[in-house]
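User: Working on a comparison across species. This one is Membrane protein from Pseudothermotoga hypogea DSM 11164 = NBRC 106472. Can you predict its structure so I can line it up against the others?
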Amino acid sequence: MKKDQRILLKMQKAEMTEYIVYTKLAKMDKKNSEVLSKIAKDELSHYKKLKILTQIDVAPSWWRVIFYLFLAKLLGITFALKLMEQNEEKAQKSYKALEQTEILSDEEEHEKALLKLIDEERIEYIGSMVLGLNDALVELTGALAGLTLAIRNSKIVALSGIITGLAAALSMSASDYLSRKSEGGNKKPLRSALYTGIAYLITVLFLVFPYMVLDRPMVSLYWTIANAVLVILIFTFFVSVVKEENFKKNFLEMLSISMGVAVISFFIGMVARRFFNIEV
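Assistant: Here's the predicted structure for Membrane protein from Pseudothermotoga hypogea DSM 11164 = NBRC 106472:
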């Protein structure tokens, strides 16, 4: 099989896969159903045009279909669509190489249409989630690091972390509510505050969890740091895909801030323990 034939078959498989994904997403998202259905029909049209060139029927990649639908359910249809869009951009290069200009024109229209679909509530309030999660990561990772060295008792550190985290979550939610209310605009202050508070609380519980199940505070701290890195990795990937930003830059920036605060707090805890001569 020639190289061009293999590329065409790969493109053909991708078009059929995307046709099925868009069709199912159109049924899931009634608000954007018309646009998604239009894109689905175009993908099927692309498939048929490619079939004329290859003279072969190609089955879709069902694991990709399941994967994108799972992502749409878990992280929102916008996130799934943005990942699909990245594949569209790769496809455009293949179409250029094979001079499939008509298909390329449709693909470019798809990209513009997809950008207009970013109207999910969770995306609208992504700033609030970033605020809550960022603040929790920086403050609590640092606080837990300092408390670990100052107290060296997992259960007391866990209790202190939960109390500190709950108080901070309520404070952050209240601040976000007042800020949104004074700004006006389309965002609902109460809903924005809830997104901020929930993101903060989930992060708090995830970071404090190691101290609740382990009796060795230093091991708990290592686990907490690993959890913090995991949260940063997942969330920055989500934000980078949705907002089309540089993932590596966002990840390293957020990681350096959180870990930098944790290291400083760690040494503050060490100094405080020696200065006040506290044994717990």
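For your comparison, note: Residues 122-276 form one domain.

User: Helpful, thanks.
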